Amino acid sequence: MLKDYSNLMLFLTAFQSGLFALFLLTLRSRKKRDNRILGIYLLTLFFQLAHSLVARFGLLETIPHLAYQGSKFIFLGGPLLYLYARSIAKNLSIRKWDWLHILPAIAISSYNFFSYDILSVADKLAFLQSRQALVVPWVSAMLLYFYYLQLISYIIASIRLVHLNSVENISWLKFLLYGFAIIWTFDILMLGMKAFTPELADVYYPWLEAISRTYTFSYINVFVFKGLLQPALFHGEN
Question: What's CA 65's distance to the chain center, in Å?
Fold first, then answer.
């Protein structure tokens, strides 16, 4: 029952995130760069949620091209929200080297492409059926630790940026950062529970996931509603 509920929340959140991402990416306004950064972030959230749904319904072996696609986006969330915060700060700007923040995501995507994406359909199916991991266990563990560290670092950096610089619509940015920080906290708790305390995960993970999915769906809806009620946030004018 809880699993079905979580799946429904995943689907609705993915739909809402993808829809608003398209809105931001196609919106013509004076804040095109800001909207694109935030739109791309929501698009990465959509792809991660959609990939989770595909995996949950056992469709990866039916459509093997979709396997391992979600991992390409996990290292984009923190950098994109930080770049968005920096982009709308009045006394700051995005410099060319700031885009180096997305290098980990590029590295993961490149590894996945050469390790899996370029394989034939038959080889992909054989790989999935063999239940092999794309990376060796110790590398997988290191990536998990890096994911935790990256999220925490960007949460701190983004919140620090808000408090130390003049930011237009600071209440909106605080709402954005703190809201997604809670989502990331749930992600870290769920991943950590599965990785380090599997005996607890058997009991508590379904409940924690249900709470997380409910919060994420509710927050995205408030996020969209709040944004649409304040056109100045995305158009640059009232």
Answer: 20
**What is the residue extent of each domain of the chain?**
2-235
Q: What is the mean pLDDT of each run of 10 residues along the chain (238 residues)?
A: 87 92 87 88 91 85 85 89 85 81 92 90 86 80 85 88 78 86 87 80 86 92 82 67
54 and 66 Cβ atoms separated by less than 8 Å: yes
* Residue 127, CA distances (Å) to 53, 62, 138, 141, 155 in order: 20, 13, 20, 21, 36
3-state SS, 142-194, equals HHHHHHHHHHHHHHHHHHHHHHHCCECCHHHHHHHHHHHHHHHHHHHHHHHHH
Architecture of the 2-235 domain: Up-down Bundle (1.20)
